[in-house]
Design brief:
It comes from Lactobacillus iners DSM 13335. With 448 residues, this protein is an alpha/beta fold. The protein has eleven helices and 25 strands. It is globular.
Length: 448
């Protein structure tokens, strides 16, 4: 068979590797992408820009030659213009204006996502940036090298916004962080957790402006000089937009069924409404184990898993995806927040009736050195009717991030709070307490 993959970032790469490693001997794999690079780990952009790592070079984890060595044909800087789904033909244009066509037996769309660009007055001014591609990270990095760039306005206090705010502050810039929500990270955490990060940002001299809507970019001599919101006007030498992402699901046109946000609607095999077309990564939907329904969660980890599952199914090996929890984490100035599944706020938004339990304790026994023994705050969210665990959040200066994987599995497998109460958790003073905060939270929970 002939497979054509459109898009070669995380989902497309996972799909290509799956096909080449498992089915490559008698099949043809074509990879097409409009970018001039592939496999950029954008989650490392802020670490590089903030000089917490010395170079961006290792943020690329593979290269075209790796796929060519396995027998793939890869075409970068190539834009797909349209797809004839009836005759199974992909029409594309290479950078040098050469037009090409590729037929396919199975098509895998991995178009990814695109930054949300607010349609505000002044949007065409120089000095307004986004963060998605390597080239965009490079542009921001070069701006922060300039001595006349003293004040940076970051619009959007999700993960990328908070991370780039820290990076710019580490580069010695005055940083203003804006969001329409009442706290940062509001899509992932309840206020009891996100406000911990808010205070952490302020403690490191990042100026937070929440509950503010950007209304206009103000300019001078063609360059942005200020940001106007519904509450005021703020001088800024550059503006970095980190409002969020939308599915970049364009090529399917009216041929493929869509989710409410425009993403391709796929089944648990990542097959679209066209049986010969699969969609993976940020351009497609996911199955949420917490909601037990279709949803959209754009994360690199989800993209990789969807690429693997979609490719196997495209090749004829029927594998159902395990579903996702949206597990995630962030570390800013040593404060670590991790979460999975639904927050209380998110559950309410989706109409799921839940309870929750909070617990806070030190990670280690009191006799352990205080310098190694930070407090951990945990929240477990569970469904009222069934006591099924649907979410968890943790915050600490201690590195407890691996624990969120256990809660992710618990949600995936439909475990209840009753099962969590007597979970076999080992004790060793170097790692935890005999009365572990997970156990104590589960015992404290109201399960009536």
């Amino acid at each position: 068979m002939k497979f054509v993959i459109v898009g070669t970032n995380h989902a497309g790469i996972a799909a290509a590797n799956t096909l080449l490693d498992n089915y490559g001997k008698n099949n043809e794999v074509i990879m097409i992408d409009r970018n001039n690079n592939l496999s950029y780990l954008g989650c490392g952009t802020a670490l590089w820009v903030g000089r917490q790592i010395s170079s961006y070079k290792k943020l690329f984890y593979t290269k075209p030659a790796d796929f060519e060595a396995k027998g793939a044909r890869i075409s970068l800087e190539t834009t797909v213009n349209k797809i004839d789904f009836e005759n199974k033909i992909v029409y594309a244009t290479i950078k040098n204006h050469t037009e090409i066509t590729e037929t396919y037996d199975k098509l895998i769309l991995a178009e990814g996502s695109a930054p949300i660009a607010p349609d505000l007055p002044g949007k065409d001014l120089a000095g307004i940036h986004f963060l998605k591609l390597f080239q965009e990270g490079m542009a921001v990095d070069q701006e922060l090298d300039k001595s006349d760039v003293k004040t940076v306005a970051v619009v959007g206090a999700g993960y990328i916004g908070v991370e780039i705010a820290e990076a710019a502050r580490r580069r010695g810039k005055q940083v203003l962080l804006f969001d329409a929500a009442k706290t940062c990270l509001s899509s992932y955490y309840d206020p009891e957790f996100s406000t911990l990060m808010d205070q952490n940002l302020r403690d490191h001299d990042i100026e937070t402006h929440y509950g503010e809507l950007a209304q206009e970019y103000l300019g001078k001599d063609g360059h942005v000089c200020a940001l106007k919101t519904n509450k005021g006007k703020y001088q800024a030498d550059i503006v970095i937009n980190c409002i969020g992402f939308r599915p970049n699901a364009i090529l399917g046109g009216d041929h493929l069924k869509r989710f409410s946000n425009g993403a391709y609607l796929v089944n648990r095999n990542f097959q679209t409404s066209d049986p010969d077309v699969f969609a993976v990564g940020d351009c497609a939907t996911n199955y949420s184990n917490a909601l037990q329904d279709t949803t959209y969660i754009a994360l690199a980890s989800n993209a990789v898993r969807s690429g693997i599952v979609g490719a196997h199914n495209a090749a004829g090996t029927v594998i159902e995806g395990a579903g996702v929890q949206g597990s995630n984490g962030i570390e800013i100035y040593d404060l670590k927040l991790v979460s999975t599944g639904l927050s209380v706020k998110a559950a309410d938004k989706f109409g799921l009736s839940v309870k929750y339990v909070d617990y806070e304790d030190k990670q280690l026994p009191d006799f352990m050195p205080a310098s190694e023994n930070a407090k951990v705050k945990i929240r477990i969210v569970y469904e009222k009717k069934t006591n099924r665990i649907v979410g968890a959040q943790l915050a600490s200066l201690y590195d407890m991030h691996e624990l969120i994987h256990m809660f992710s599995l618990a949600i995936q497998e439909g475990l209840t709070m009753d099962k969590l109460q007597l979970l076999d958790i080992f004790f060793l003073p170097h790692y935890n307490q005999p009365y572990n905060y997970v156990t104590m939270a589960a015992l404290k929970a109201d399960k009536n």
